[in-house]
Design a protein that fits this description.
alpha/beta; globular; 8-stranded parallel sheet
Length: 353
């Protein structure tokens, strides 16, 4: 199989040659470890085929993304002001433009034709040209909305305290905002479909450390119908959907099954491997987010290998349905990068040997 064919087989649970995985090396990791990290990359051509020695210097020469630069604020399409204190990390909102009743009453949304969740506008004609080239070369055209496109967007606009009160005692202005954001997201999904996306990403962070942020009752009332509609819109028009969600979401796992994304991207230890198995295995393909809180920065290479093995044995199958995604930041030592690459190379064929 080509990599794209193998990926589709894993997603559709039709028997891939190997479990797909991705190890994403952030600029922050290159900034800290540089040549030492590159020695690990060059030792794993299976994971990083075609890596050119010294290529990390090109990455370091690029400016930091405005979203990850503590020397300047980022203002999104709605007027939310974002600020970070550390290079390589997206910051938090320091100015919520619709925090006051007056601002909420008189809000004006960004233009619908370039809207993509509220952070950064998209040129969908340019995206269509890019997708055509991707498919020409045998790839999968993947588009999607900004991270935090719906519930988080409402919180970004109103501020956390206001947003919680809005859910409990919603006024007409909040209901109008809720409907407006959902309609803009619908338009964005339609625009990705028109551009030719094979997969539409719909990423949010809905969980805390031990439970979902707004709980099952309010999730069902305010979120579930909108998420279901967006995923159905994409899927009914022939596209797959990808639902990213950080944090513990086990108290709304049944509702995520109702959303029924093609691929669900939860965090592993935040939810519990056995809990994820019981809720989702065989029902939704998982693109598992590997433990960034403990194993990668603080664990031993043995801890990392054992966790990969446990996840593959517990959540994988010969049919597929499991992928693993790893994000390497500046707190992950090169020995642990080597450990995760080695473990994924070894266990990616566990079910297909």
């Amino acid at each position: 199989m080509t990599s794209s064919e193998n990926w589709r087989a894993a997603v559709q649970r039709t028997g891939p040659d190997r479990m797909p995985y991705l190890i994403y090396l952030t600029k922050a990791s290159w900034e800290r470890f540089g040549a030492e990290q590159e020695r690990v990359v060059l030792a794993h051509p299976e994971t990083w085929p075609g890596w050119r020695p010294g290529a990390y210097r090109d990455i370091l020469a690029q400016p930091w993304s405005i979203k990850e630069d503590p020397d300047r604020d980022f203002v999104d399409d709605w007027g939310c002001v974002w600020r970070t204190t550390q290079h390589g990390f997206v910051g938090t909102i320091v100015e919520h433009p619709l925090a006051s009743p007056e601002a909420l009453h008189g809000f004006a949304p960004p233009p619908a034709e370039t809207y993509n969740g509220g952070q950064t506008a998209v040129d969908f004609a340019r995206a269509a040209a890019h997708f055509a080239n991707v498919r020409k070369n045998g790839g999968i055209a993947q588009g999607g909305l900004d991270h935090g496109f719906f519930l988080l967007r409402l919180e970004y606009l109103r501020g956390f305290g206001n947003f919680m009160c809005d859910l409990i005692e919603p006024g007409d202005d909040f209901r109008r905002l809720h409907a407006t954001v959902h309609e803009l997201n619908r338009t964005a999904v339609r625009n990705w479909l028109a551009a030719g996306a094979d997969m539409v990403g719909l990423p949010e962070d809905l969980g805390g450390q031990d439970r979902s942020l707004i709980g099952p009752r309010f999730f069902r009332e305010w979120a579930l119908p909108c998420y279901v509609e967006l995923h159905r819109l994409a899927q009914d028009n022939g596209a797959m959907t990808y639902f990213h969600c950080d944090g513990n979401i086990m108290d709304i796992a049944d509702q995520i099954l109702e959303i029924n994304p093609t691929v669900f991207n939860p965090q592993d230890r935040a939810n519990g491997i056995e809990n994820l198995r019981d809720a989702f295995k065989g029902r939704i393909t998982l693109d598992l987010d590997f433990d960034r809180q403990f194993a990668l920065p603080f664990g031993s290479p043995r801890d990392i290998r054992e966790l990969v093995e446990h996840e593959v044995r517990t959540l994988g199958s010969p049919e597929g349905g499991l992928m693993i995604k790893v994000e390497i930041r500046g707190d992950v030592p090169p020995d642990n990068l080597d450990a995760i690459a080695s473990a994924l190379e070894e266990y990616s064929t566990f079910w297909s040997k």
